[in-house]
Amino acid sequence: MPTDDGVLLRKALLSEDCIKDLVRPLREAGWSAEVGEPDERALFVSVVAKADGQQFGVALLYSCATDNGIYRRLEARAS
């Protein structure tokens, strides 16, 4: 019998918060936002926003208690 390690719940909460708190406000401000899939453990999701020839990327973390290695991995992507 498979066990639930919380990935589905984290994925749902992370996706919902991403849309509500980041994507909608960006779109209301005239930006287009591309949302990636949450990582395999649903600890973060990446978003790329574009408008008027400008672009920026951001990652939303499920928890501030996320392992430091993930912060470093995300930092390397942004550099």
Q: What is the topological layout?
A:
Layout: H1 7-28, E1 32-35, E2 44-51, E3 54-61, H2 68-78
Antiparallel strand pairs: 1-2, 2-3
Protein model, in words:
- The protein is α+β, with helices and mostly antiparallel strands.
- The protein is 42% helix and 25% strand.
- It has two helices and three strands.
- It has a three-stranded antiparallel sheet, covered by helices on one side.
- A hairpin with a 2-residue loop joins β2 (44-51) and β3 (54-61).
- The longest helix is centred in the first third of the chain and has 22 residues, at 7-28.
- The protein is globular and about 45 Å long.
- The model has no long low-confidence stretch (mean pLDDT 90).
Write a brief structural summary.
By secondary structure, the chain is α+β, with helices and mostly antiparallel strands. The chain contains two helices and three strands; from the N terminus they run H-E-E-E-H.
In N-to-C order, the SSE pattern is HEEEH
Strand order in space, largest sheet: 1-2-3
Helix proportion of residues, in percent?
40-55%
Radius of gyration: 14 Å
Span from first to last CA? 42 Å
Structure annotation, total helices:
2
How would you classify the helix and strand content by structural class?
alpha+beta
Rounded mean pLDDT score:
90
Choose one word for the global shape: globular
Give the oligomer, counting copies of the same chain as homo and different chains as hetero.
single chain
Sheet bearing the most strands, described?
A: 3 strands, antiparallel
- Beta strands, count: 3
Low-pLDDT residue spans: none
Give the strand content.
25-35%
